[in-house]
Amino acid sequence: QVQLVESGGGLVQPGGSLRLSCVASGFIFRNFQMNWVRRPPGKELEWVARIGSVHSESTTKYSDSVRGRFTVSRDNAANTLFLQMDDLKPEDTATYYCTRADGIRGQGTQVLVSS
Predict the structure, then answer these.
(1) What is the pLDDT of residues 23-44, one digit of tens each?
(2) Residue 98: in which H helix or E strand, if any?
(3) Max alpha carbon distance in the chain (Å)?
(4) Do the bridges between strand 60-62 and strand 46-51 make them parallel or antiparallel, or are there none, so unpaired?
(5) d(Cα 81, Cα 58) in Å, to the nearest integer?
(6) How far is residue 115's CA from residue 57's CA, in Å, rounded to a whole number?
(7) 69 — alpha (psi -120 to 50), left (phi > 0) or beta?
């Protein structure tokens, strides 16, 4: 059974940092491109970042809104995906999900950026 479980969300002040984690199970994690997406309150789902599989040397790509502030990484030995979020802004407030390349998604973790 494929499962993705996110954690690490919370309340943080503008300019602060958070590190999200996503533990994967039920499939060969290293073989899949993985993404982070987010849903701001009342808005549509928005793609944030992706990281390639071991077959593509884990190349990374970011949306314009987070490039330079967020870093996606993975630990294939631990079946875990990460999103390091620095210099957080109120507009980063959202529920964050990790997704497999075929769209399978976890339950999400909430991030609130507010003073």
Answers:
(1) 999 999 999 999 999 999 999 9
(2) strand 94-100
(3) 42
(4) antiparallel
(5) 11
(6) 39
(7) alpha
